[in-house]
Specification:
By secondary structure, the chain is mostly beta strands. The chain contains no helices and four strands. The strands form two sheets. A two-stranded antiparallel ribbon has the order 1-4. The protein has a two-stranded antiparallel ribbon with strand order 2-3. The radius of gyration is 14 Å and the shape is globular. The mean pLDDT is about 90.
């Protein structure tokens, strides 16, 4: 479990930042009670959309200063 956060991945000089995250779920027999779903939060971190961690699912997510997850 992680609290909602923003990824700040960058190079050593902080000149180039990641702009895209890719999540690929590879566990065929994953059970919902195991958790691991992706939560996308609004800018105020009050409302969320949950994306289930289903086998063979690919999720692309923009990474910026407002992409709480």
């Amino acid at each position: 479990f992680l609290n909602p956060h923003i990824d700040n991945s960058h190079d050593g000089d902080r000149e180039n930042y990641r702009v895209l995250n890719l999540l690929y779920y590879i566990t065929p027999d994953w059970k919902p009670e195991n958790g691991g779903n992706l939560e996308l939060w609004d800018e105020k971190v009050r409302e969320r959309v949950e994306i289930a961690s289903l086998f063979n699912r690919l999720v692309l997510m923009a990474t910026n200063d407002k992409s709480f997850h």
